């Protein structure tokens, strides 16, 4: 199963490279916003001209490059529509996991598994795509006192996920 996902991600990457316009290098790209340590979510808008498919391919290729896996995709918007509700736009949650980093946290604090895997939402608001991250460092607050080693691991996870979001919002791979 994991091998199939890797093959699909690599095939998508090559398709994207040879069939899609490159969004990198745009001089109008805004810098990433600062992380507010008092907020659970980190939200960034996707740059104009970057499609949902660009975002997905960028997230998948960035995850693959950092040895992250995406164990689940939750098409929440589709489930809302299946219930007959009128949803304009897209809502989807993609999960990402790096056991090489996250295992450090889980071995010391197995209760942190309630927050795993990490999640990035892709959604449409006011006609524009956005990305939102449920910040691992913020989630640590709900465990109580944690070691510096675990705080550092959560920080590394979060920084990598924010980097992935930065790539995705620009449609870069």
Can you put this structure into words, describing what you see?
- The chain is built from six helices and five strands, in the order αβαβαβαββαα.
- The chain has about 170 residues and is α+β, with helices and mostly antiparallel strands.
- The chain has one domain: TT1751-like domain (TATA-Binding Protein, 2-Layer Sandwich).
- The chain has a five-stranded antiparallel β-sheet.
- About 15% of the residues have low confidence.
CATH topology: TATA-Binding Protein
Q: How many structural domains does the protein architecture include?
A: 1
Strand order across the biggest sheet?
1-5-4-3-2
Number of strands: 5
The DSSP helix count reads 6
| Element string (H = helix, E = strand) | HEHEHEHEEHH
Sketch the major β-sheet.
5 strands, antiparallel
Return the CATH class.
Alpha Beta
Question: In one word, what is the shape?
Answer: globular
Mean pLDDT metric? 86
Which structural category fits the helices and strands? alpha+beta
What fraction strand? 15-25%
- Residues in helices, as a percent range: 40-55%
Q: What quaternary form is this?
A: single chain
* CATH architect. name: 2-Layer Sandwich
Q: First CA to last CA: what distance?
A: 23 Å
User: What gyration radius follows from the Cα positions, in whole Å?
Assistant: 17 Å
The named CATH superfamily? TT1751-like domain
List low-confidence stretches: 4-26
């Amino acid at each position: 199963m994991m091998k199939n996902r890797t093959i699909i991600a690599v095939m998508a990457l090559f398709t994207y490279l040879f069939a899609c316009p490159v969004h990198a290098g745009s001089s109008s790209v805004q810098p990433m916003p600062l992380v507010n340590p008092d907020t659970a979510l980190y939200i960034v808008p996707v740059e104009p001209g970057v499609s949902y498919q660009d975002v997905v391919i960028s997230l998948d290729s960035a995850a693959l490059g950092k040895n992250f896996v995406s164990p689940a995709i939750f098409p929440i918007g589709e489930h809302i529509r299946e219930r007959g509700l009128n949803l304009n736009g897209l809502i989807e949650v993609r999960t990402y996991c790096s056991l090489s980093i996250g295992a450090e946290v889980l071995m010391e604090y197995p209760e942190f598994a309630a927050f795993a895997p990490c999640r990035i939402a892709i959604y449409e608001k006011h006609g524009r795509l956005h990305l939102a991250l449920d910040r691992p460092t913020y989630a640590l607050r709900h465990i109580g006192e944690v070691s510096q080693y675990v705080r550092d691991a959560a920080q590394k996870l979060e920084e990598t996920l924010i980097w992935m979001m930065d790539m995705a919002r620009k449609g870069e791979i």
